[in-house]
Design a protein that fits this description.
The complex is a heterodimer of chains A (481) and B (226).
Chain A (H helix, E strand, L loop, with lengths): L3 H19 L7 H7 L3 H4 L8 H8 L9 E5 L5 E6 L4 E12 L19 E17 L2 E10 L4 E16 L5 E9 L32 H5 L4 E10 L3 E10 L20 E4 L3 E12 L2 E17 L13 E15 L3 E16 H5 L7 E15 L3 E12 L32 E13 L2 E12 L19 E9 L1
Antiparallel strand pairs in A: 1-2, 3-4, 3-19, 4-5, 5-6, 6-7, 7-8, 8-9, 9-11, 10-12, 11-12, 12-13, 13-14, 14-15, 15-16, 16-17, 17-18, 18-19
Chain B lengths: L2 H6 L1 H5 L4 H18 L10 H19 L18 H12 L6 H10 L5 H12 L10 H13 L10 H4 L17 H13 L5 H9 L2 H12 L3
The chains are: A mainly beta (481), B mainly alpha (226).
Chain lengths: 481, 226
């Protein structure tokens, strides 16, 4: 029987792992191409990475529309309806194959040692339906619903509803301003260096993910709702502020069975509103662009519990203060396209709740994640990406727990997802090769190699698994239409 | 049909002529258009259309072409001070999907799809009124480029570009301004003329007779012209 504290840790760890494993692939949407009448290359280098034009299209609320419209105006010439004659729907499909360097133990019957089958086919790994385009003048949407093979259900995926307008300032400099209502911090961002749309654009959901991840790095994706306001001056200087509140999916109130209010059966509930902020500057010259920026958020989370082990929402919170730097360089030649980008996210944790309940060893911890990558494409047809990733942070044996001993008569230990030394340190490389026979169809092979996993290179879980055992081969067919 | 419309059909009609005759026809055409265009300019759109076009030029077109038509990226042509007639005709060609070079398909067919004639006129007039900023051509190529531009290459059957585009490369009537244009853009257009993806008979003939190095020198010369 696990203690309440351990249970809460596993809730945190579990939700983090789920968020990482379920982190949706970032996507490009052909309905935008249909709406603008422009080829993918106008907005994308290769999907889903955006060009400068794509960033401005997004800042303008996905509303650039070159299709015939159903219109209505008042007698004062106020436009009250502009409805695209063709609804902006798109479909995306991913088929994948995943092979781990070493098979995982099969714990379906802990009394009978065995190994899980290695070689997982995702057919589909994801199947998404989008509504992505203009809804009304100045109002556009990117709404994604995804069937994923791990959950076996259809659920809301990345969503970004935007209102945007533009003023012309002196010397014909533009000032774009708007609001974004979205469900994933950084999904509204314009650059591909921030978490929601950063590399890796597609990854296996049938592999082992490390224990630790910062909150802004996809952990809260699709379980929050945020309203942010932004301005973009001269298509160069960008600033955004806003706040996020919990908007958990598939969670009901224990008393009423209704969708809310959230109670102690929900875990990691935001107390109040979590502030989010972002500043970035982009410089264009010839065929080059360079962006440098900062972003961050502060989340106060009530640990809560689960339907099986509820814990009332109240008392102390865990505070996660995330501050990140990012950059993105792009060279867009006629034949050669190069992108170099990266981000470093630093998280300071003040774990008042977890420390008090015995779910964390330290009252404060920190975690730093870095990712840097370079992508090259020849004629948007064949290319590849190399990425280095690294997470380092405080050692905390309760936050990053060791493998629990098997409970007799069980003979097998779980291992794999634990950390023998309580360290979150993980690092490694990813190499990917891509081939696009058509601009909306991508074939990719990817290999992830770990130098370190959950704190160690060898025997990281204390029951004999090495970091390199989690090295992952991943093959992907990804298309959208 | 208005006189100016007849002249806009000119490049297509010209294809009926054998090449040597084309050039003499072009010469007459230039003189004729120069005399007539001022008599038959499209009407200036009303202020609301002008304001709409200004907003579009800065907020939409400007993302690629620069708010005043002085684009930074060589993929996208500089439009500042371009001839209004030429610009309007190109926008109509995009709208009717008759201009077929790759970036016309990929970018401009969509962008021009819903433009009406008065907005096209207003956009063209907006860009025509902007001040051009000259670029900087490769100094090593400029001298040869100037020679080809001003005098052609008689031995290769390449006529002087200046005949149609003007000695200062500011364009004449329906023939576009080339001064200050990105050299990479000019080269790409010459390739499209050569392959006939951009189907303009006069320029197809010119581009067929130009060697790559000659194209590069002309393009470098033009980029540096004020």
């Amino acid at each position: 029987m696990k203690s309440g504290g351990t249970m809460r840790v596993l809730c945190v760890v579990g939700s983090t792992l789920f968020a990482i494993a379920a982190a949706p692939a970032a996507l490009a949407v052909p309905s935008f191409a249909r709406q603008t009448g422009m080829a993918c290359e106008a907005c994308h280098t290769v999907f889903p990475e955006l060009t400068h034009f794509g960033r401005v299209f997004k800042a303008n609320g996905y509303t650039l529309n070159n299709l015939a419209q159903v219109l209505d105006v008042t007698e004062k010439k106020q436009q009250v309806l502009a409805l695209t004659k063709t609804p902006p729907f798109s479909i995306m499909f991913q088929v994948s194959y995943t092979q781990l360097n070493k098979t995982l133990p099969d714990l379906s019957n802990v009394n009978i040692p065995g190994e899980a089958q290695n070689g997982t086919v995702g057919f589909p790994q994801q199947f998404s339906l989008f509504y992505a385009g203009e809804i009304a003048p100045h109002f556009g949407a990117y709404i994604q619903a995804t069937y994923a093979n791990d959950s076996g259900t259809i659920s809301i995926d990345n969503t970004d509803l935007r209102f945007a307008d533009m003023q012309i300032l002196g010397d014909d400099r533009s000032l774009i301003y708007g609001l974004s209502l979205n469900n994933n911090p950084t999904v509204q961002d314009l650059w591909n260096s921030t978490p929601a749309w950063g590399q890796l654009y597609a990854a296996s959901n049938a592999t082992v993910s490390p224990l630790a991840g910062t909150q802004i790095d996809g952990t809260l994706a699709q379980s929050v709702a945020g309203l942010t306001a932004y301005v973009m001056w001269n298509e160069a200087l960008y600033a955004e502020v806003g706040g996020y509140h919990s908007a958990q999916q598939g969670v009901t109130n224990q008393l009423t069975g209704a969708a809310g209010p959230l109670d102690g059966t929900a875990s990691n509930v935001i107390q109040g509103v979590s502030p989010y902020w972002r500043v970035a500057y982009e410089h264009l010259w010839s065929r080059n662009s360079f962006e440098i920026g900062l972003y961050g958020a502060t989340f106060k989370l009530l640990p809560g519990g689960t339907p099986a082990a509820p814990s009332p929402l109240g008392g102390p919170t865990n505070r996660f203060n995330d501050v990140a730097e990012d950059f993105q360089y792009q060279y867009l030649g006629e034949d050669n396209l190069i992108t170099v980008a990266g981000t470093r996210i630093h998280e300071n944790m003040t774990l008042d709740a977890s420390f008090a309940s015995g779910a964390a060893t330290n009252p404060t911890d920190n975690l730093t994640t870095m990712r840097f990558w370079a992508t090259y494409y020849y004629r948007r047809m064949i290319g590849g990406t190399v990425q280095y990733f690294q997470t380092t942070g405080s050692t905390d044996a309760l936050l990053y727990p060791p493998t629990p001993p098997p409970t007799p008569p069980a003979t097998q230990s779980a291992g794999v997802v634990y950390s023998a030394n309580g360290s979150p340190n993980t690092s490694g490389w990813v190499a990917e090769i891509d081939y696009l026979p058509w601009l909306n169809t991508k074939l990719a092979v990817q290999y992830t190699a770990y130098n370190k996993f959950n704190g160690s290179s060898t025997n990281y879980d204390g029951v004999g698994r090495n970091a390199s055992n989690n090295n992952t081969f991943y093959a992907l067919l990804w298309f959208a239409f | 049909m208005r006189t100016i419309d007849k002249f806009r059909e000119f490049p297509e009609r010209l294809q009926r002529y054998p090449w040597p005759r084309r050039m003499s026809v072009v010469g007459f055409f230039v003189l004729g258009v120069a005399a007539l265009t001022h008599a038959d300019e499209p009407a200036t759109p009303d202020s609301a259309v002008q304001a709409y076009a200004h907003r579009m030029a800065v907020g939409v077109c400007g993302t690629c072409h620069g708010p005043h038509g002085n684009s930074i990226q060589p993929k996208f042509p500089r439009l500042a001070a371009q001839n209004a007639n030429y610009l309007a005709q190109q926008l109509k060609n995009f709208r009717s999907q008759t201009r077929g070079d790759p970036d016309a398909l990929g970018y401009m067919w969509g962008m021009a799809a819903q433009l009406d004639d008065s907005t096209i006129t207003a956009l063209a007039q907006y860009y025509a009124a902007q001040a051009a900023r000259a670029g900087r051509g490769d100094p090593a190529l400029v001298a040869q480029g100037r020679e080809i531009y001003q005098h052609g290459i008689i031995s290769e059957g390449v006529p002087a570009c200046a005949t149609c585009h003007g000695a200062d490369a500011h364009g004449v009537a329906d023939f576009p301004r080339l001064a200050g244009q990105h050299s990479q853009y000019i080269l790409k257009q010459l390739a499209s003329f050569q392959s006939n993806m951009r189907n303009v008979a006069i320029m197809h003939g010119v581009a067929l007779n130009l060697r790559t190095a000659e194209m590069q020198s002309v393009a470098a010369y033009l980029e540096g012209q004020p």
